[in-house]
Amino acid sequence: MGQPKALITGITGQDGSYLAEHLVGLGYEVYGLVRRVAIQDQQVRYGRLVSLLGDGVAELHGGTIQDYGSVYRVVADVKPDEVYHLAAQSFVAESFVDAHSTMDINITGTLNVLTAVRDLIPECRVYFAASSEMFGKVSESPQNEQTRFYGRSPYGISKIAGFELTRHFREAYGMFACSGILFNHESPRRGMEFVTRKISRGVAEIKLGLREKIGLGNMEARRDWGHSKDYVKAMHLMLQQDEPDDYVVATGETHSVRRFCELAFMTLGMDWKLHVEHDEHCERPSDVELLCGDASKAKWELKWKPETTFEELVKEMVMADYDKGVE
């Protein structure tokens, strides 16, 4: 058997970059589907992939995930053994502002990937990036693979649709297609628009004397936070099983935004109460108050477990922003 080939949609994002690194380390040929605008602005948009591209390891193909012709062409050119479909409009707050684009990218894009694989290389294994936001208004806690979905945002609802499409292609066409229901996962590579990175960057800027305050929304929302570099390992393990299935990936611990904020400021010896103010513009029309995952199935069947503690994650994010001077 030759060198395995993997195609990653959304390779320039947080998860895509960590996954690409992990797969390269395992001996894969890694290919990425990226928006054409990214190819035109490589210095900014490829920042997370510098080390891989510098070695000529990851080969990138321009395309549009909502355009079936683009997806079909890339799948036909690469002929991957595994596809990791991570591309999405993944910022929950933005999905309230532009629900139409969120639905188009997240649902049509998923349908395009599954259809192209079915028509071209049905033996290829497909991973779909589902989300804990699908649980929304939770009916039980912690949440596992049997917990019912109750989306509370256009993003969460779009991910439910993607999850059901993945299941449909698995059952109707016999494809090896599975979904990872990943709970919140962060890192220094997290986008600036997400609350965790907003906090880590804000703390660094305050310590460096670049600002005095940061504005935040619901401080009492509780999330199950892990590290992206740990979670991408679970993605790969799902596609190595004998039979396709869906898995919750989580730490099993929950912490409030307030606690994340407190630890972040403590990392650089500051009191968060002196620097945080409420910003009503950060509030969502409908919010998810509590998410906590039960990853027992992943731990038992995939032999996976998180390696980074919540405290280590917060410290790593703050120090990464502080050490580079918040470029």
What do you see in this structure?
- The chain is of the alpha/beta class and 327 residues long.
- The protein folds into 2 domains: 5-186 and 225-249, NAD(P)-binding Rossmann-like Domain (Rossmann fold, 3-Layer(aba) Sandwich), CATH 3.40.50.720; 195-223 and 254-286 and 309-323, UDP-galactose 4-epimerase, domain 1 (Alpha-Beta Complex), CATH 3.90.25.10.
- Helix content is 43%, strand content 16%.
- It has 13 helices and 13 strands.
- The strands form 4 sheets. The chain has a 7-stranded parallel beta sheet, with helices on both faces.
- Helix 5 packs parallel to helix 7 (99-120), helix 7 packs parallel to helix 8 and helix 9 (195-207) packs parallel to helix 11.
- The protein is globular, with a radius of gyration of 19 Å.
- The termini are far apart.
Taken as a percent bin, the fraction of beta residues is 15-25%
Could you give me the name of the CATH homologous superfamily of the largest domain? Answer: NAD(P)-binding Rossmann-like Domain
Task: Categorize the overall geometry.
Answer: globular
| Domain module tally | 2
> What is the CATH level 1 assignment of the largest domain?
Alpha Beta
Number-wise, the strands total: 13
Tally of DSSP helical segments? 13
Q: What is the level-2 CATH architecture name of the largest domain? A: 3-Layer(aba) Sandwich
Major sheet strand order: 3-2-1-4-5-6-11
Mean pLDDT: 90
**Gap between N and C termini:** 45 Å
Task: Quote the CATH topology of the largest domain.
Answer: Rossmann fold
Low-pLDDT runs of 5+ residues are 37-41
Helix content: 40-55%
Largest sheet: 7 strands, parallel
Computed structural class? alpha/beta
N-to-C SSE string, H for helix and E for strand: EHEHHHEHEHHEHEEHEEEHEEHEHH
Radius of gyration: 19 Å
